[in-house]
């Protein structure tokens, strides 16, 4: 769910009335100045608690800041003040989904669509919010009817195709779902540079080797309570984090961008791009950046003995993590290549995953993920590998091994992860609220007749593939 800022006209230079102040707040908000926007929204509700615009703005700020509980309060105040707009219910539904309040979220998604039957993003987010095994077909047909609307924007068509794909998938009709996934992915406007990804991967293998890590060994920041869960998106990273965060001594902080920011800071400081800056990574720099990272996470969870950072794409940075935080625990989530790539192709990722909209790009990135993780396992271990199929087949054994690896005693609550009360913002926010199910294992079998190009691409990039029977 992407919280939406209310639309407004151009902001005046001075606010002379409530509408003008709102326009200024929206202008700040759209420019990324959320603190300034929030100050104006606060002033608006202080002067007139009955103005829904201020409450809605505060809700959007809170949602974007990762505070869904606060956002819910603000959105509900907006609705109580007479803000009966589809956007209010849509944003409220997204926050309640993040907190696992799924039945309430469904009510708000339906209300958003009642208020605005042409709300394409609401169809998409509603489709992701639960399983539609018994009522997927009528929802898919409704979306297909909406797709016939003349003049739909590309973004709205993409939302609708991914929604229809999900509804048909849940209804057990993969042959009807697949064309929608193909059409939705084809409407993606971003680009992916295969050559740049490949060159960076090759330079990483050459630059961050055993000799470099031996030179820096023991010089980073000493904190054994930091856990990184890495792997391809849709490989089980959210499930693993949810299991770990269900332990009484563990806090999960979701997908953190801190390591990527450190990589960028090192590139800027040394004047050399990633990963070439590691040649100038001194023991003092490693310790300083490692300590800064640890301080940030410890401030976010001051009472947690163990903290989990589960940004999947940190698989690119395991060597850097080992240099900065030599006692950090690295967990690699690995899932069947076809299941992983198919699941990515079925997601309308908002940002950061431009490779996921093309099957050949997906195969290339999956192959590099495996190549890098084999390298890190060799030179930057220990790395604890969790195979998704084994996790769903024997969750207790997998969870016990995880607990032992991160240095905590066994806690049976790890198996009741779906009851854990915490915000989840990833594409797996619905799945982690359900008891463990096995239907996602072997997902590719249902789409076997459509996956020949993906099988060929993975094979061409050196990935061993078990081809499912059609």
TrEMBL record:
What keywords appear on the UniProt entry? TPR repeat, Transferase
Note the SMART domains from the entry. TPR (SM00028)
- Segments annotated as TPR repeats: 86-119
A GO molecular function annotation here is: protein-tyrosine sulfotransferase activity
Which PANTHER family does the entry mention? PROTEIN-TYROSINE SULFOTRANSFERASE, PROTEIN-TYROSINE SULFOTRANSFERASE 2
- Name assigned to this protein: Tetratricopeptide repeat protein
Instruction: Name the source organism.
Output: Rhodothalassium salexigens DSM 2132
